[in-house]
Amino acid sequence: MATSNNLNQRRILLGITGSVAAYKSAELARELIRLGADVRVVMTESATAFITPLTFQALSGHAVHTTLLDEEAERGMGHIELAKWADLILVAPASANFIARLNQGLADDLLTTLCLATDSPIAIAPAMNQAMWRDQSTQENIHALSNKNFHLLGPASGDQACGDTGPGRMLEAPDIIQSLYPLFNSGALQNVNITITAGPTQEAIDPVRYLSNHSSGKMGYALAKACVDAGANVTLISGPTSLTAPDRVNCIHVLSALEMLDASLTQATNSHIFIACAAVADYRPVTAASQKIKKDSDSLTLNLVKNPDIISEVTSSQPSLFAVGFAAETENLLKNAEKKLARKNLDVIVANDVSQSHCGFGVDINEVALLTKDSKHSLPASPKTAVAEWIIEHLAPIYHSWKTNKTHG
Ligand code: PMT
């Protein structure tokens, strides 16, 4: 069965327990890494009797964790941190003993402790002798774990290392990987490089004053997270905000429109999609005073010059980019957005009415319509995180069919 890879950038904690099948986990780790997953390995003490931690250290490029009470390891990524880090804990092979301890909720070694401490899904690939697999206690444990929403991968049936034949063989690495795909999101933008601008820009008047606007960056940051969740590689070019960049996002901080332009032109060369969510200041002072302007006179005239239109500069320097703009409007929302779509030569525009105080700039809610030259979708007022997910859900198929037409057109 061909399934598209949605493992890129997924953080997989690979747990290895004591079974002769542990040798297969080396191939499993290698394949997960080849598919773009970030893999960290935890081995039980008995696993190290079958295969060395050094093998997995070499494959994963990270130290292998083996003990719970290891001061050195706790100074690096401690066990709670590791449990939080993982998007998935995959225990392969999972021995009968480990399965029993897992079902009892024991925390008597590092791996069982991590399983208790994580909020992420846990998948287990059992591996044991066929009689041990058939044993009533094992079957009860497996049944209980399935009821507790653990994901059971296998086992397969066939010849066993001990000479027996029957169920209990660990699944082969490609079969385990196939079973992991459904555990993650759609991967609708898997491996797509996306650059997003967010937040306001600040245009210096003098060393202590600037021109700016009320953009908080919330919409752009939420989009960055939704893109990462859909499997994309995301660069966020952010004007000054008080937000922390979402996990796994490469964040470039800028202040002014000119700095944002510079960063955008550089990042665009390596991007498939460019999303301009920033509220770029349309004008900047012709010159910024080098000293604080004295308030000696009753009035002050600022000479302003128009800032470059970042998204237009980006699309003309990279015509093969898929370009997504936002339209912040206070009247004639859809009409004005359609005009901007055409004028700025965009593939998609997201229109938001910023005339209402509960939506748009600064707040957590937005109400948007997503337009192409021949389609329109609307979403009622919703939290920006939900708006971002909704945008990506609609954007991904539009992008993919645009790409297909471009390739075959
Ligand atoms: O940051 P938040 O508080 O969460 O608020 C989100 C938002 C309201 C700022 C956001 O949803 C939004 O609408 N962003 C675009 C704001 C804007 O500048 O709209 P505009 O209609 O003026 O510009 C149209 C498009 O051109 C936008 O994609 C904008 O990024 C881009 N542009 C504008 C001017 C400029 N010099 N360069 C640009 O690239």
Structure characterization notes:
By secondary structure, the chain is α/β, with parallel strands linked by helices. The protein has helices at 22-34, 53-60, 71-75, 79-85, 96-104, 110-117, 130-134, 136-147, 173-180, 218-229, 257-268, 310-317, 333-343, 384-408, and strands at residues 11-16, 38-43, 88-94, 122-126, 151-152, 156-159, 165-169, 193-198, 203-206, 209-211, 233-238, 249-253, 273-276, 283-285, 304-306, 322-329, 348-353, 365-372, 375-383. Helix content is 35%, strand content 24%. Strands 12-11-8-13-16-17-18-19 form an eight-stranded mixed sheet, with helices on both faces. Strands 2-1-3-4-5 form a five-stranded parallel sheet, with helices on both faces. A two-stranded antiparallel sheet has the order 6-7. Helix 13 links the parallel strand 16 (322-329) and strand 17 (348-353). It is elongated. The model has no long low-confidence stretch (mean pLDDT 94).
Topology:
Elements: E1 11-16, H1 22-34, E2 38-43, H2 53-60, H3 71-75, H4 79-85, E3 88-94, H5 96-104, H6 110-117, E4 122-126, H7 130-134, H8 136-147, E5 151-152, E6 156-159, E7 165-169, H9 173-180, E8 193-198, E9 203-206, E10 209-211, H10 218-229, E11 233-238, E12 249-253, H11 257-268, E13 273-276, E14 283-285, E15 304-306, H12 310-317, E16 322-329, H13 333-343, E17 348-353, E18 365-372, E19 375-383, H14 384-408
Parallel strand pairs: 1-2, 1-3, 3-4, 4-5, 8-11, 8-13, 11-12, 13-16, 16-17
Antiparallel strand pairs: 6-7, 9-10, 14-15, 17-18, 18-19
Helix pairs in contact: 1-2, 1-9, 4-6, 5-8, 10-14, 11-12
This protein binds ligand PMT.
Ligand PMT binds at residues 197, 199, 215-220, 257, 276-280, 282, 307, 309-311, 325-328, 340, 352, 354, 360-362, 366.
